[in-house]
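User: Sequence in, structure out. Go.
Assistant: Echoing your sequence, followed by the structure tokens.
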Amino acid sequence: MSSSRRAGLFLRCCLVVFAVASALYVSGPALFSKFKKGFRFDGSAPSCGPCVCDCPAPLSLLTIAPGLVNLSIADCEKNDPDLNEEMGKQFVDLLTEELKLQETVAEGNSRHVNLTFVEARRIASEYQKEAEKCNAATEICEEARERAEALLIGERKVTALWERRARQLGWE
């Protein structure tokens, strides 16, 4: 047997042992209680004595708090001017705080936009300078090319003149 087959067999055995142990762990307490009470195959429930209950009647809400029945949630805090004033103060404070936060955020955004705009203008200025340098260099190169072309035309005329004289003198 190869070592990989042995390892596979060992793994399978471990999984089977784990599955059996898990099943016993889950269903063990129920089986133990059935074994302890005895198994019944006739389908009837185990008999026990009659229940004796001397519990008092449940208390109603009226007996616990008689005034609670007349209250409703809608009436809560309607007629309390101190609470209304405090809630109004809190609402105003919350709105003030929210406005201050929005103002701070707006100032931060404005500062960021201004810095970005200044940086963009600086970079655009640099690009403009570079473009002007490139245009000047292009003009210089174009002028030099035109001069070189004119010189080349002149040299061709001189070469043609010398070639004609050489042919007149017998050069082939």
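User: And one key feature?
Assistant: The mean pLDDT is 82.
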